[in-house]
## 1
Amino acid sequence: MTLLLAGLLLFLGSHLTRVVANDWRTSARERVGPGAWKTIYSVIAIAGLVLIVQGYGLARQAPIEVWSPPAWTRHLAALLMALAFILLAAAFVPGTHIKARVGHPMTMSVKVWAFAHLLSNGRLADIVLFGSFLVWAVLVYIAARRRDRVAGIQYPAVAASRDIIAVVVGLAVTVAFAKRLHASWIGVAPFG
């Protein structure tokens, strides 16, 4: 669990600097330069991600059950994951009504992903991992929306066809992940 916690601290901590220490982040970035800042930031984030993967893998070898989720939570999680992948796709398709409404669909996607996995997993490592990402995503989303309001930023929608693209891509990725990728990458079949 120590590796998992260290990884979460590095990865999520580095991604929280704009929320909790924006003035420090700005001055540090100016001091070292944007290129060096991105390099340092990337190294810390990648190190954190590696530790998360290793720590989570180790924690799964000796699981501590906190609660046993009912079977229906897996089905609800599957529906939520479809929404999460649609939101993620909308983050990369410019001019969607989804982005116009949500503002930051990628961060919202992380919130939905984490919540879905909290519902359907009851082991301590799962609660720590997905709970941390959920708290992080909530904080980042609130801060991003606040920055948008202060700066008067709006995300205009171009056409409904953009939303259709996001929905189709999101659903296709959902199916691919549920049928193949989750089992091969994570080692757990969502419905197996």
Note: The chain has two domains: 1-62, 65-192.
## 2
Amino acid sequence: MMVRYLMREKGVTMRVFLTGGSGYIGQATIAELVGQGHTVEALARSVRAEEAVVAVGATAVRGGLADLEVLREAAARAEAVIHLAQASSGEEDLAAAAAMQDGVGGGTYVHTGGTWVYGDTDGVQDETAAWNPPGAVAWRKAVEDAVLARTADGGRPVIVQPGLIYGGDNRLIDAFFVQPGTEKGAISYIGDGGNRWALVHIDDLAPLYVAALSAEAGSVYVGVGGVNPTAKEVAEACARAAGLDGKTTSITLEQASAEMGPIADAFALDQQFTPAKAQRELGWQPSHTEPLSVFAQD
């Protein structure tokens, strides 16, 4: 009960253990945590990763997601855990989550999901939408169910489901747009490009993870900025940034899949989400509301 009380007190600093700290989201989240006065230990599986997390203010813990005892012990030293690292499989993610939840006990455990699990949304949706995941992320259902089940045993699981992230040094969207078409002087999109993308800027997402440390046990939050442009609009903006005079070209899903693999199905999803729940319950306010202008400048 004391841990739960401390988590709710604004301005109280905590010891936080974080995975994936050397990555795109991780470095931003460590910086946000440190900026708010928290002490951070971050998992680092290599010398390069260790240097990256130390550079943004964390203490490195050497190991990987398969090192379950390392995860358990680090989580036990912490008052809260944020799991950002991308696992190689659902089995690895579930085992890592279980080890960290065992370690942190009644402290908050924030797990990373993603909005892709909801599939096509047919209009604007929230966290109550039905799951209809493409194959690339279908494994997340069993993991998230197991994570949330810890609530019944006194755990404090919280899940953050980011939309498609942009801003800073992100290369996920870049990885899509360097597919067939770019070398021909145009940026490609799938089909007619009318499918919408639920986006979130990295500078908004990091504060959401920190805010989630005070969430009620069992809470789930989609991490989106509330602006959902079409894939074609994003392609056009990126084409302007690339000096291609806004030129775009349509490719088929089959072409995209041949280049990208199963993740192409996720980029073809038509998704719109509202951040209203996180705004209402956590006081989180996304400030980046013009993603197309950001894409046009990158």
Note: Residues 14-162+200-224+274-280 form a domain with the Rossmann fold fold (CATH 3.40.50.720).
